[in-house]
């Protein structure tokens, strides 16, 4: 009886609900808010289940385990009578729970691709130190640490640092750094050192370095460089968090509450665009894992790796440019997260800012609201 009472008290204390959580701790003052990306371990910690199986339902029309509609992430629909296995709530009461999808190879985050490119332009591609002299580094670091400096001033300082980090030989390790630019692929980055070798370069050096003139900076190598960047150099680049979080190792699978499933005539299920794209990513990830385990050719592995990069990029932003026609899954692109948020039909302008309120008027020709009525 005592054990049952303690269990009921614990359930009452940690009850899942869709109501906003309000902690009764008295008045407090918020000092700061920090926005950053979630790392792989943080994604796993926030998740309830690992998703690795493709498909949606089994033969008994029940959500498959470790798939995108797993009941541990919440009920898949309102008319199915499914109960959440995590909080034991139905579709109306379950707030939804996250899952995670582990990628067998890393990919770039399309939303921060330009930021990744700028960081690579500023660091040595061998020792990962910033391409500034010690005198310049100390001077810029003093400006970034100035307590009176505002955000706009620090942004201007970061832009000045980016201009100062020109392609040159590293003063610390002697590595020859050249131009870093986008490759011809969708999310490719190359380190072009061909212009650094002139006619005066020693013949033996040319022969030894002939295979390293144009280097491909894939996500695995970029992650290795980012992990070796010093915290002081992160301050110079005006980064609020570690740069290795810009490389995707795990995908956070959203709860089924925001991508519900429904059945149409004929017993077929109609899935959300996010669910369909995640299913494609799972299939591509499984194919790439089979290629790596089966020791397939390098060209085939690289092709599947590039396809995985494209699928993850379209999962975030379905309007990403430069996708080859051979990698287009269908003529009608699926809506990614960016398309759900931006624009007139997005969440902010279409839902949050478009509320209709009684006893109010709307005008589109009003002047400055700060003016007085008599002005």
TrEMBL record:
**Protein name from the UniProt record:** DNA-directed RNA polymerase subunit
Species in which this protein is naturally found: Papaver somniferum (Opium poppy)
List, alphabetically, the GO terms of the cellular component aspect: DNA-directed RNA polymerase complex
Q: What family is reported?
A: Belongs to the RNA polymerase beta' chain family.
Q: Which GO biological process categories is it annotated with?
A: DNA-templated transcription
- What is the protein's known function? DNA-dependent RNA polymerase catalyzes the transcription of DNA into RNA using the four ribonucleoside triphosphates as substrates.
GO MF entries: DNA binding; DNA-directed RNA polymerase activity; metal ion binding
Domain spans labelled RNA polymerase N-terminal: 244-375
What Enzyme Commission number(s) does the record list for this chain? 2.7.7.6
* Entry superkingdom: Eukaryota
Catalysed reaction equations from the record: RNA(n) + a ribonucleoside 5'-triphosphate = RNA(n+1) + diphosphate
Q: Does the keyword Metal-binding apply?
A: yes
Q: InterPro entries, per this entry?
A: RNA_pol_N (IPR006592), RNA_pol_Rpb1_1 (IPR007080), RNA_pol_Rpb1_clamp_domain (IPR044893), RPC1 (IPR015700)
């Amino acid at each position: 009886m005592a054990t049952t009472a303690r269990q009921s008290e614990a359930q009452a204390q940690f009850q899942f609900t869709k109501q906003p959580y309000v902690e009764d701790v008295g008045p407090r003052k918020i000092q700061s808010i920090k926005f950053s990306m979630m790392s792989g371990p943080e994604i796993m910690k926030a998740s309830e289940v690992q998703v690795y199986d493709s498909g949606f339902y089994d033969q008994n029309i029940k959500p498959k385990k470790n798939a995108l509609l797993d009941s541990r992430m919440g009920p898949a629909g309102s008319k199915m009578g499914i109960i959440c296995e995590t909080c034991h709530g139905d579709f109306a009461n379950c707030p939804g729970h996250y899952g995670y999808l582990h990628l067998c190879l890393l990919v770039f985050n399309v939303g921060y691709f330009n930021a990744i490119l700028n960081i690579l332009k500023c660091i040595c591609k061998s020792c990962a130190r910033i391409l500034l002299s010690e005198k310049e580094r100390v001077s810029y670091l003093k400006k970034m640490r100035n307590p009176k400096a505002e955000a706009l001033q620090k942004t201007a300082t970061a832009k000045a640092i980016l201009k100062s980090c020109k392609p040159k030989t590293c003063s610390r390790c002697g590595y020859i750094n050249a131009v870093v630019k986008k490759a011809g692929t969708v999310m490719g980055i190359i380190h072009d050192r061909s212009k650094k070798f002139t006619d005066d370069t020693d013949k033996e050096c040319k022969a030894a370095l002939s295979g390293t003139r144009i280097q491909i900076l894939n996500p695995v190598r970029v992650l290795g460089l980012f992990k070796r960047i010093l915290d002081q150099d992160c301050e110079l680049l005006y980064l609020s968090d570690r740069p290795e979080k810009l490389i995707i190792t795990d995908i956070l699978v959203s709860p089924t509450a925001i991508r519900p499933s429904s059945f149409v005539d004929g017993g077929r299920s109609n899935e959300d665009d996010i669910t369909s794209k995640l299913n494609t990513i799972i299939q591509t990830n499984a194919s790439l894992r089979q290629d790596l385990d089966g020791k397939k050719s390098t060209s085939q592995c690289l092709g599947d790796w590039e396809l995985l990069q494209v699928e993850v990029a379209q999962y975030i932003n379905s309007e990403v440019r430069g996708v080859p026609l051979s990698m287009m899954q269908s003529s009608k692109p699926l809506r990614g997260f960016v398309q759900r948020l931006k624009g007139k039909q997005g969440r902010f302008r279409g839902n949050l800012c478009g509320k209709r309120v009684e006893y109010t008027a709307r005008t589109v020709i009003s002047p400055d609201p700060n003016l007085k009525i008599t002005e």
